[in-house]
């Protein structure tokens, strides 16, 4: 696909050209591209191997976003001022717990996720994924990402709920519940099987989408993954601020939703939205339990009255 980027003026570049040289040549002869499109094009031309270029860029992006987004929550946990917004403020992770969690997550990224990242490019391109320039319009990216959020949320709900079935919980999901009061770094602290199973919703949904529609760009998928990582890390942060997104979007799950799941070990199975748990009566917490009790009592009274 890198050949699709080539312009006749680029064919004189040799394999020893630096990235800066390639970028200068791309900028000189492709003025119709914006700055980021030039950076993107130059990367693929410079790498001269599209699978390697996508794999390396994907892995670096994933690590930078995951640990970069987790860092503010590590800082919050270290500063007492933020305890007023900590949902379970009697349970603050220690520095050792944070370090051990980060080390295991990084190990799994390198051993479990990296091979999948490397295989993604040839499979997705075969199914129709685009990764050339120009980039898709913002409206299309926003529409597709919204659909991916809904698709992944459904996948996550049903498979996460299944993982709470006794034998599956003990064999697979128990590791993720090591921390009853979660923190940002623990978002991907899970067994390799769970990482692959629930991670398929993040990567597999775009693959299914492109297989069905033949219309998805790699940049759209990158933005989707970044936003989904933000959502997962924030949901595990343990903090519920007055400005948290769920305060403005009532159907957004947020940290309070997932924190209850870790505290009670059951209920609140969805990832991004609240509607699956609401409709299927799997909400966790005191209020949800109270409503269920009241509903059962009303049913009993109704039967006695007959």
From TrEMBL:
<protein>
    <submittedName>
        <fullName>Methylsterol monooxygenase</fullName>
    </submittedName>
</protein>
<dbReference type="InterPro" id="IPR006694">
    <property type="entry name" value="Fatty_acid_hydroxylase"/>
</dbReference>
<dbReference type="GO" id="GO:0008610">
    <property type="term" value="P:lipid biosynthetic process"/>
</dbReference>
<feature type="domain" description="Fatty acid hydroxylase">
    <location>
        <begin position="147"/>
        <end position="282"/>
    </location>
</feature>
<dbReference type="GO" id="GO:0004497">
    <property type="term" value="F:monooxygenase activity"/>
</dbReference>
<dbReference type="GO" id="GO:0005506">
    <property type="term" value="F:iron ion binding"/>
</dbReference>
<keyword id="KW-0560">Oxidoreductase</keyword>
<keyword id="KW-1133">Transmembrane helix</keyword>
<keyword id="KW-0472">Membrane</keyword>
<dbReference type="GO" id="GO:0016020">
    <property type="term" value="C:membrane"/>
</dbReference>
<dbReference type="Pfam" id="PF04116">
    <property type="entry name" value="FA_hydroxylase"/>
</dbReference>
<keyword id="KW-0503">Monooxygenase</keyword>
<dbReference type="InterPro" id="IPR050307">
    <property type="entry name" value="Sterol_Desaturase_Related"/>
</dbReference>
<keyword id="KW-0812">Transmembrane</keyword>
């Amino acid at each position: 696909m890198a050949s699709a980027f080539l312009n006749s003026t680029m064919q004189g570049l040799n394999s020893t050209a630096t990235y800066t040289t390639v970028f200068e040549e791309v900028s000189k002869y492709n003025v119709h591209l914006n700055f980021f499109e030039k950076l993107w094009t130059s990367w693929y031309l410079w790498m001269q191997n599209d699978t390697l270029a996508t794999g390396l860029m994907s892995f670096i992006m994933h690590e930078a976003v995951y640990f970069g987004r987790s860092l503010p929550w590590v800082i919050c946990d270290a500063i007492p001022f933020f305890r007023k917004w900590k949902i379970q403020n009697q349970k603050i992770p220690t520095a050792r717990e944070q370090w051990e969690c980060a080390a295991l997550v990084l190990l799994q990224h390198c051993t479990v996720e990296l091979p999948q990242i490397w295989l993604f490019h040839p499979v997705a391109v075969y199914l129709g994924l685009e990764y050339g320039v120009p980039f898709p319009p913002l409206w299309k990216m926003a529409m597709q990402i919204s659909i991916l959020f809904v698709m992944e949320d459904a996948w996550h709900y049903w498979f996460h709920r299944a993982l709470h079935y006794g034998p599956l919980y003990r064999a697979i999901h128990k590791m993720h519940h090591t921390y009853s009061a979660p923190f940002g770094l623990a978002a991907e602290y899970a067994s390799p099987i769970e990482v692959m199973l629930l991670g398929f919703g993040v990567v597999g949904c775009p693959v299914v989408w492109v297989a069905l529609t033949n219309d998805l760009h790699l940049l759209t998928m990158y933005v989707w993954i970044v936003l989904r990582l933000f959502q997962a890390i924030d949901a595990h942060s343990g903090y519920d601020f007055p400005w948290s997104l769920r305060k403005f979007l009532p159907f957004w799950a947020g940290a309070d939703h997932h924190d209850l799941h870790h505290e009670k070990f059951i209920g609140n199975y969805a990832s991004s939205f609240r509607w699956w748990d609401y409709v299927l009566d799997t909400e966790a917490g005191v209020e949800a339990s109270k409503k269920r009790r009241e509903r059962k009592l009303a049913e009993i009274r109704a039967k006695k009255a007959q």
